[in-house]
TrEMBL record:
SUPFAM superfamilies: DAK1/DegV-like. It comes from Denitrobacterium detoxificans. The keyword Metal-binding does not apply. This is EDD domain protein, DegV family. PANTHER family: DEGV DOMAIN-CONTAINING PROTEIN DR_1986-RELATED, FATTY ACID-BINDING PROTEIN TM_1468. Keywords: Lipid-binding. GO terms for molecular function: lipid binding. It comes from the Bacteria. The keyword Iron does not apply. InterPro entries: DegV, DegV_C, DegV_domain_contain.
Length: 301
């Protein structure tokens, strides 16, 4: 059997959460002296206080090395292969940590086969790669074929989002103090995405209404250029009610189908602050998602 290993930042649709091949490694969030296991968090309760966290921004950490090694050891002893998809290595050390653990297990089990993928993603934009991998596993394909399908899912998925303010990004050192101050004074809202695993600015607008419209315009462009829409979720950090309203009143009529409304992983969200966005997969690879050789995102043995 091929197991599919992911970290807790990925959005998993309800229909795949109990797949027998699926395993989840949890990251951790720390705030106000308390540590949270991300996979067990009440995310909406946590986000209900995020506006008050700017003076004491939560921190995050990758899965326990012992837990990772235990998961891989269990697969190796069972004779199973593993394909893993993880949060962008530009944002977390999870991907490198899993590779280190796999090499320890490999030293004990020479026949252990694995393939790990740096999704260059931050949440719902990981979903496409995971679903492609699961479909390939269910169809009985080889590990190498599953890797290629997962990489296709990475290339064809995107997240776009707009934070309410630049305060959290400034506090986390992702933008300078002058830029944050100017943005606040001018009510500038950046539209952000992730390219090659790093945050990139698509556009800057002057109001939330314009930000939401600009995100839909980017979605339309991607749908047109990449052969249509495969699936989409509305993402939020902070207020769920506001995201649900946007989804039901604007996004669903715009694309002509119902969509899930899901919170961004707190591991990611605590560095961005209150925000809304879209995560989606198209039928073909997307421009400016992966600009280099996509094969370099996979580590195989």
């Amino acid at each position: 059997m091929i197991r599919v290993l992911v970290d807790s930042t990925v959005y998993l649709p309800p229909e795949v959460r109990n797949a027998p091949e699926l395993r989840v490694l949890s990251l951790f969030v720390r705030h106000a002296g308390k540590e949270y296991v991300e996979s067990q968090m009440d995310i909406d309760e946590f986000y209900s206080h995020i506006g008050d966290m700017i003076e004491d921004i939560p921190t995050s950490s990758q899965p326990s090395p012992l837990e990772v090694e235990k998961e891989l050891e269990d697969a190796a002893q069972a004779g199973d292969s593993v394909i893993g998809l993880f949060l962008s290595s530009g944002l977390s050390g999870t991907y490198e940590g899993v590779i280190r653990a796999a090499r320890v297990v490999e030293a004990r089990h020479a026949s252990f086969r694995y393939a790990f993928i740096d999704t260059s993603a931050t949440g719902g934009d990981s979903t496409g790669g995971v679903l492609e991998a699961l479909d390939a596993v269910h169809a009985g394909h080889s590990l190498s074929h599953c890797v290629q399908r997962a990489l296709f899912g990475v290339q064809s998925s995107r997240i776009i989002f707009s934070p309410d303010s630049l305060a959290f990004l400034r506090a986390g050192g992702r933008i300078g103090a002058a830029s944050a101050l100017l943005g606040g004074l001018m009510n500038v809202r950046p539209i952000l995405t992730v390219t090659d695993g790093s945050v990139r600015v698509i556009a800057k607008v002057r109001s939330q209404k314009k930000a939401l419209s600009r995100m839909l315009a980017q979605l339309d462009q991607d749908i047109q250029e990449a052969g249509g829409l495969k699936h989409l979720v509305v993402h939020y950090i902070g207020s769920k009610e506001r995201a649900v309203e946007w989804a039901r009143e604007v996004v669903e009529p715009h694309i002509g189908r119902s969509v899930d409304v899901v919170p961004v992983s707190p591991v990611v969200g605590c560095h961005v602050g209150p925000a809304m966005g879209l995560a989606y997969q198209c039928n073909n690879p997307l421009a400016l998602k992966i600009t280099g050789n996509v094969q370099q995102l996979a580590c195989t043995h």
